[in-house]
Structures are given as structure tokens and as C-alpha cells.
Amino acid sequence: MFISSVRYLCGTYILTEDEHFGSFLFEVSFYTIIRTLSVNKGVNLYDGVAYDKSSQTQYTQGNKLVSNTNVFDDDSILDVGCGNGKTTIELFKKNRNVKIDAFDLSDSQIEIAVKNRNKNGISEKEINFFSYDAFDISYNDKYSLIFSNATLHWITKSEEMYTKIFKALKYGGRIAIHQGGKGSYYGLHEVVVHAIANLELTKYFENWEYPIFYPSKFEMENMLTKIGFTDINIESVKTDGKEYANLKENFMNASFHPYLDKLPSKYHEELKKEYLRVCESEMVDTYSHRLYIYAKKGYSAK
Ligand SMILES: C[S@@+](CC[C@H](N)C(=O)[O-])C[C@H]1O[C@@H](n2cnc3c(N)ncnc32)[C@H](O)[C@@H]1O
Q: Mutate which of 60, 104, 250 to test ligand 1's pocket (most atoms within 8 Å of Cβ)?
């Protein structure tokens, strides 16, 4: 009864991943990873205050991306989906001669980002934070570096999104992007599905697919090649997630948004509570798969 109701909610899905260094198979019983045709307008937006308190995982991932990204004096930089701005600030600290434009869909994230910038004694001329939807960008040949941490998997029209980024780059410009890869956090999604079933809320999720773009390394390489990127270098990092001490809580403040968006607000806190209870009472698989993506538009020495 329990299993069938969960399967009714999300179906059974076999997830195969083919990569250059072999292939492997996950059987994911409760979670489908599907690309849908919508973008995230109208979703339950990130709460800046909650995210600032509980986003250590994303900050750790962002620091890895920053440490692998060169920042040159003459760089013009765009950060897509800057959140609370802490990763943007780390990028800026690599070379204080640059100017960064950084935007996020959530106004409350931007409010916190401005506070974090001010606390660090950085001016608006150095990092310009503003609210914007990534899918609306229409820049041409403007930036020499487009940076994005833990955001672009939210934009499910992925080829269009990455094409907009390509257009926004100057010739010789480059991207440094971290996003989720195929199967990431499937065990944590499984816990949410259990929690939804335990609370008898499955009716709100009938025929629904979780909106995320989690490609394999191979799929990402193909897409970037098709768009015209050169010098593509993608690091695919698959782990048990144990390196992220706060992953379960951080996941709740980020990946819960599409679930909450489907539920009447009176159930939001109940679902979070039940998720945390299930996390405590069961062995949770915190499998994580992240992609660190570097590529260029055209050719350059940088
Ligand atoms: C996990 S947070 C990462 C934030 C930040 N980059 C960091 O390193 O902490 C994902 C962010 O993507 C933003 N986001 C989601 N969809 C977006 C969109 N369409 N346009 C701009 N930002 C978006 C969310 O508001 C959220 O702040």
C-alpha cells in the first residue's frame, strides 16, 4: 500500500549513465529525473534569510569552483543565480580589480547579498547585485567570464539557457559553472517522497515531474559542443555526500522549493518536519553527483 502509493506519485525509473570512463546503473525506485518544458517563474522563491543560515553545502561547492577559476584584471564578470552573494564575494576576492554583475531571481536573496557585500567592505561599483531571471538575459558579447554556482539545473530549458550564456560571452570568453549531475541527491528526494506519502499528501503530486536539469557529463559535453563552446572540460564528481556535514538541512532549504510549490502553505512546515524525522529514523543515501564545467567561446590564451 505504501510502496504503491509512492510509485503512483513518482513512478519507477531506471537511470543509466554513460560516461567516458565506463558506465553504471542506478535503480531509482521513487524518483524520476525528467527535463520538463517549464522554467521557474512562479515557483516558491528561495528565502534569503533561511538560505544564508543553511547553505554550507552550496558554499563549499562554490569555493571549489572559485578555486579552479582564474580572474584577470581586465575581466568583465557575470554571476548567474548569485543567491546570498557569498560565493560571488569569494570570486571577487581573487582579484579586487574586477567588476562583477551578479543577479538572482529571489529579491530576498539579493537583499542578503547586499548585506553580505557591505559587511565585507565591498562597494556596489565592485559587485552590482540585482534581481533578475536568468532565462531573460539577452546580452551579446558582453562578459569575459560567466560564473554560476548551483543554479543552472533549475532552468529546465537547458539548451536555450546555455545558448543565452554563450551569446552573452565575448569572443575568447569563458564559463565556470557548477550544477547538479545525473542522479544527484536521489536518496534525499526519496526521503521527501516518503514524507509526502506518510502525510497522505500524494494527491497534490499526481502526474507531476520534479523540474530539474541533471545531465550526465556526456550529455553536458554534447550540448555545449552543439552550442559552439570550445575547450570543454567537465569534472564529474560522484560521492556519497558525506563530505557535506549539513547536506540534509541544506537540501531542505533549496531543493524543497518545487515540492512546496505544489502544496498549500499550511502543509509546508509539516512536510519539513516529517522529512527531518524520516532523515533521523532511516538510513539515508546522500549520493551526490556534481558537474564542474569549464569551456570557452572561440579561442584565447586565458
Ligand atoms: C542553490 S542557490 C545557489 C546560490 C549561489 N550561487 C551560491 O553559491 O550560494 C540557487 C539560486 O538560484 C536562483 N535561481 C533559480 N532560478 C533562477 C533563475 N531563473 N534566475 C536567476 N536565479 C535563479 C535561486 O533563487 C537561488 O538563489
A: 104
| Cα–Cα distance for residue pair 177/233, rounded to 1 Å | 11
Q: Evaluate whether residue 293 is within a structural domain.
A: yes
- 42 pLDDT above the threshold of 80: no
Domain total of the chain: 1
User: Which residue in 61, 56, 52 sits closest to 112, CA to CA?
Assistant: 52
Range(s) of the domain holding residue 239: 2-74+144-297
Among 92, 132, 154, 165, which is best to mutate for testing ligand 1, by the most ligand atoms less than 8 A from CB?
154
Which residues, other chains included, contact 200 with Cβ-Cβ below 8 Å and sequence gap of 6+? none
- Residue 136 alpha carbon to ligand 1 centre in Å: 14
Q: Tell me whether residue 294 is exposed, middle or buried, using C-beta atoms within 10 angstroms of its C-beta: 0 to 12, 13 to 18, 19 or more.
A: middle
pTM value > 0.70: yes
Beta-carbon contacts of residue 34 (< 8 Å; ≥ 6 apart): 209, 210, 212
Res. 30: pLDDT tops 70: no
Q: Which cell goes with 98?
A: 574586477
Q: Ligand 1 mean position to 45 CA, how many Å?
A: 9
The CATH code of the domain that includes 174 is 3.40.50
The answer as to whether 93 is a domain residue is no
Distance 134 CA to ligand 1 centre (A): 9
Q: Which residues, in sequence order, are CB contacts of 123 under 8 Å at separation 6+? A: 117
Q: What is the pLDDT of residues 122-138, one digit of tens each?
A: 999 999 999 999 999 99
Residues of the chain with pLDDT > 90, as a percent, come to: 83
Q: Is 276 contained in some domain?
A: yes
